[in-house]
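Morning, I've got a small favour to ask if you have a moment. It would help a lot if you went through both lines with me. I owe you a coffee for this, so here goes:
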Amino acid sequence: MLTGILAGLAAGALWGLVFVAPRMLMMGAIHDAGTEMPSLLIGTISLWIMLLGKPHGLRWLALLPGPALTLAGLLLMMGSAPACAANSS
């Protein structure tokens, strides 16, 4: 009986570390970063799908425009975020 209770407590602690803690950190980061961060996270989903689901016959060079455009978008958003914040105050 005691091992079942301990196993349940361990499972609950792992659930908190694996599922709750990263999401709480992400929510805090999005709150601090402003409205640009959710767009940035959603925009990189397609990049991860492209990189992780690459067919075996496709060359890496053919995938270069996707990361290049994503990087350009990141740089553009990083440059525009401070300007928006400075104009709002």
